Automatic annotation (TrEMBL):
Listed transmembrane segments: 292-311
Protein name in the entry: non-specific serine/threonine protein kinase
A GO MF label: ATP binding
InterPro entries linked: Kinase-like_dom_sf, Prot_kinase_dom, Protein_kinase_ATP_BS, Ser/Thr_kinase_AS
Source organism of the structure: Saccharopolyspora hordei
PANTHER family recorded: MITOGEN-ACTIVATED PROTEIN KINASE KINASE KINASE 20-RELATED, SERINE_THREONINE-PROTEIN KINASE NEKL-3
Enzyme class: transferase
Domain Protein kinase: 11-267
Pfam family, one: Pkinase
Superkingdom classification of source: Bacteria
Binding site for ATP: K40
Keywords: ATP-binding, Kinase, Membrane, Nucleotide-binding, Serine/threonine-protein kinase, Transferase, Transmembrane, Transmembrane helix
Its EC number(s): 2.7.11.1
Amino acid sequence: MGEAPLLGGRYRLGARIGRGGMADVHRAMDTRLQRVVAAKVFRSGADAAGRERFAEEARILAGLSHPGLVTVHDFSADADELYLIMELVEGHTLADEVQAGPLPPQRVAEIGSRLADVLAHVHDNGVVHRDVKPSNVLISDEGGVYLADFGISRLAAAAGRITGSGQLIGTATYMSPEQVSGGEVGYPADVYALGLVLLESVTGRVEYPGSGAESAVARLVRAPEVPLDLPIGLHRALLVMTASDPAKRPTAAECVDLLAGRSTDVIPRVQATPPHQATHPLPRPRRHLKSWLLTGAGIGALLVVLVALLVTPSAPEQPALPPVSGPAGVERLPEDIATLEELIRR
């Protein structure tokens, strides 16, 4: 039995190592350069719109360059042969890792920061991924983290929410609220999806499980439940990344610093305690001199009365007190002091 024909007259297909909605991924040998590659081969029977999305993925990836993106070597958009030849990443997906149980928060934050850096580069080049999910995150045997599968990505200026057939674009489990409700889909949608991916990684459970429709609608009913026992930096990052309002989410570039613990600038600040409620209140301003004098006059009069009661014997003569109708306040203070001195001398 002869060998199978070469793909594009150059690539010999091996075992299938992955399967997506439109294509299968095979290990392949580049017979010209004698290197092992990954061949993403479009399945037959798909419609023209699907083929165009596949070709667009190749064009988008070819225009991007980042350590966290799989390198594109070659592609064909012919009707008979539709394929994408990429760098082969030996390893597993984040979905495989999470399936074994929750990941330590420190590892989740590290993976998240690296993925956010990839998204920042993608967004800087005007591209919205629109399908960030655990199975699209590749982790190499050397520890590299890659964001893959740009099959439904779009240039930001042309990003839509549905295909020509009226189907929602993306994976329902990780869609942003604006994707579900038909709003504008932009860069914040990728940040939201990354937040859900990281939340799932640290809890070991899908935040919005169920069928496509059930999962999609659930996020319009309740916000994601971010565990309170997470490290404060990761907890705050996940809260803002999964905010229902796209305008309140940080950018992918801000997420890099947030998840790495280098910044909290996008976290709503706690309002400072007003001065009158502060634990250590500021010194009170000095009262006006007149207020002190008035207070002193009142105290002086009170002392006169007290001393008179204590030192005066039971005799007919009683010390004369200032008349009730006499001068008050500052004007009477000298007279009160003189009376007090006279009583003390007695």
